[in-house]
Amino acid sequence: MSALLLLLLSAGVLLSSIEAQEAYSKLPDKYRKGVDLALQQLNSHSGVQRRYLFFKSLLKSDIEPGFDVSYIYHNFYLKATKCGKGTVDVTQCKFRDDRPLIDCAICYKTFAGNIEKEPKPYVHCLHKPVLTEDMKTARVDRCNTMSYQSGDATILASKGSK
């Protein structure tokens, strides 16, 4: 009986990891590039010892003023895995439920599908329990004033998808 319970439990953990990777792979490319940028910055910190993976989107928004330019805003969660930071094959990485989620907000400009260096992409990631409402407001304000031309719509005024 306990072997069956253990088998069901391990299958559930593996399934949640597969579902998260599926969620990542279903993101449009313009949002995946932002998630990758956030993960790259997170993994560059020496204090981070575990591999984090995309968990789920909270808010996605974009403005396409034309000429193959887009302004992207993406708020999403990253979740710690049991794999070490240097792990390359993440398909076997199981999520840890003993660590808080990391709440990330990122905004950037793309041209022809690539993230532009100017204006510099804004990446803000914090453990979810630490994030305050004031910090959330500051994120949105920062993205809305991110060197857009006068008269352009703000990034969060567009119709996004959840």
Automatic annotation (TrEMBL):
GO biological process: one example: cell differentiation
Signal peptide coordinates: 1-20
Keywords: Chemotaxis, Differentiation, Disulfide bond, Inflammatory response, Secreted, Signal
Cellular component, GO annotation: extracellular region
Broad class of where this protein is predominantly found: secreted
GO molecular-function terms, A-Z: signaling receptor binding
Subcellular location: Secreted
SUPFAM superfamilies linked to this entry: Cystatin/monellin
InterPro entries per UniProt: Chemerin, Cystatin_sf
Domain of life per record: Eukaryota
Protein name, entry field: Retinoic acid receptor responder protein 2
Organism: Oncorhynchus mykiss
Protein's gene: LOC110489905
